[in-house]
Amino acid sequence: MPEPVLDEEGQATLEAILERRPAITRPALRQKITHFINLTMQARGSTPGGKDLVLEATRFVISPAFTPHLDAVENLGKYRDRRSYKFDKDAYYTAPRIVKRWPSVAHQPQKPPREMKVLAFNSSPRKGGNTDVLMDEALRGASEAGAQTEKYMLQKLNIRYCVGCRKCKEPGYEKICSLKDDMSDFIYQKILDADVIVIGLPIYTGREPAQLATFFDRLDCERRFDTHEDRVTATRLIKPGEKTAMVICTWGYVNDAVDVYDHIVERMMVLLHGHRVETVEALSACGFAGMLHGFDDDHRAIILRYPEELKKAYEAGRALVTGE
Ligand SMILES: Cc1cc2nc3c(=O)[nH]c(=O)nc-3n(C[C@H](O)[C@H](O)[C@H](O)COP(=O)(O)O)c2cc1C
Questions:
Q1: Cα of 68 to ligand 1 centre, how many Å?
Q2: Which of 80, 92, 110, 242, CA to CA, is 20 to 30 A from 302?
Q3: Are residues 35 and 155 in the same domain?
Q4: In this structure, which residue's CA is closest to atom 22 in ligand 1?
Q5: How far is Cα 282 from Cα 315, in angstroms, rounded to an integer?
Q6: Does residue 19 fall inside a structural domain?
Q7: Are residues 227 and 186 in the same domain?
Q8: Do 186 and 312 share a structural domain?
Q9: Residues enclosing ligand 1, CB less than 6 A?
Q10: Closest Cα to atom 23, ligand 1: which residue?
Q11: Is residue 211 part of a domain?
Q12: Reduced to 3 DSSP states, what percent helix, strand and coil does the chain have, rounded to the nearest 5?
């Protein structure tokens, strides 16, 4: 693919973007951006490409988690203004906090709400933090519709790292897992008994917190193998289609950042899907960083000041068990 024809500002923008990325990744990224620019110029019949086209191409090819950094390349003044919630209390209090409810997946719960068990795991260590408050609102919606709800703070549980022994994959292995901890004592059983699983996560360093990664590592053992005469067949402890899920994710970035970590939310959905648990509701919520790190001066979650946003969690929680 030939180098695109860029004007001086377009070229400088491309170099500034690449400069912000690890050196070892730059050649591949340059190639991808260049490819997009060339195809777009061909389609639009325009040349040379300018700054806007380079930014458009970059937004298209890179991880959305990097897009807030692009604001700095696009307009440094605007970028600095938009970061004032970090250093200025008025800006902190007036910054937008947005909850996005993903379009729900139509589903018909297999039981009436009063017979349903909703089991929630919060991987934020902050009890009463923003993830926790949103989860409680969702659980309130489910509970007021009649469901039984229960929530665990993952960090308060004794959950050991998976040791990779693979005993759970030996045909005929009778235990769920070889490790002795809260997972094997009661959490696996609670998961097997639940109708709905709710996963709450704050974004930590661009991904899910370590305790949630460990939780999913430990859930791998529900996929088993059995021998049947001369064949080994795959089987599962979680019966396909038996459970649904909701994912609630919060993060720091403020302003137009409500899609920035949707790929991580999606990753959680893919993991659940791998266990044949279909996510039917999801919330992405942003704006929980800055001067008071997502709290107010009374150390209450800042999302409590946004009742309209909280309502979305309540409604999603209700729909989770009613299907409406
Ligand atoms: C160790 C750590 C790493 C974080 N990394 C990110 C990040 O990469 N991107 C981001 O937008 N926010 C990041 N944050 C901010 C949290 O995602 C945000 O404050 C979250 O909503 C907190 O949820 P909570 O109030 O439920 O604890 C980080 C916070 C911590 C403590």
A1: 15
A2: 80
A3: no
A4: 202
A5: 11
A6: yes
A7: yes
A8: yes
A9: 124, 126, 129-132, 202-206, 250-253, 288-289, 294, 301
A10: 202
A11: yes
A12: 50, 20, 35
- Of all protein residues, the one whose alpha carbon is nearest to atom 12 of ligand 1 is 252
C-alpha 197 – ligand 1 centre gap (Å)? 22
Residue 82, in any domain of the structure: no
**Count of domains in the chain?**
2
Single-letter amino acid, residue 295? F
E strand or H helix at 9: helix 8-19
CATH code, 168 = 3.40.50.360
∠ CA(198), CA(102), CA(143), 5° rounding?
Answer: 40
Residues 113, 30 share a domain = no
Query: Rounded to the nearest whole angstrom, what is the distance from the C-alpha of residue 289 to the centroid of ligand 1?
Result: 7
pTM of the entire predicted model? 0.94
- Six-digit token string for 236: 């599962």
Distance 102 CA to ligand 1 centre (A): 20
* Ligand 1 pocket test, candidate residues 133, 203, 247, most atoms within 8 A of CB: 203
Sequential pLDDT tens for the chain (324 residues): 677 789 999 999 999 999 999 999 999 999 999 999 999 999 988 788 899 999 999 999 998 888 877 888 888 888 888 788 889 999 999 999 999 999 999 999 989 999 999 999 999 999 999 999 999 999 999 999 999 999 999 999 999 999 999 999 998 899 999 999 999 999 999 999 999 999 999 999 999 999 999 999 999 999 998 887 788 888 899 999 999 999 999 999 886 678 899 999 999 999 999 999 999 999 999 999 999 999 999 999 999 999 999 999 999 999 999 998
Q: How many A from CA of 14 to the centre of ligand 1?
A: 29
Q: For residue 147, what are the domain limits?
A: 92-322
| Residues 138, 25 share a domain | no
| Residue 70 domain-assigned (yes or no) | no
Per-residue CA distances from 174 to 159, 160, 169, 189, 238 (Å): 20, 20, 10, 14, 15
Q: Whose CA is nearest to atom 26 of ligand 1?
A: 131
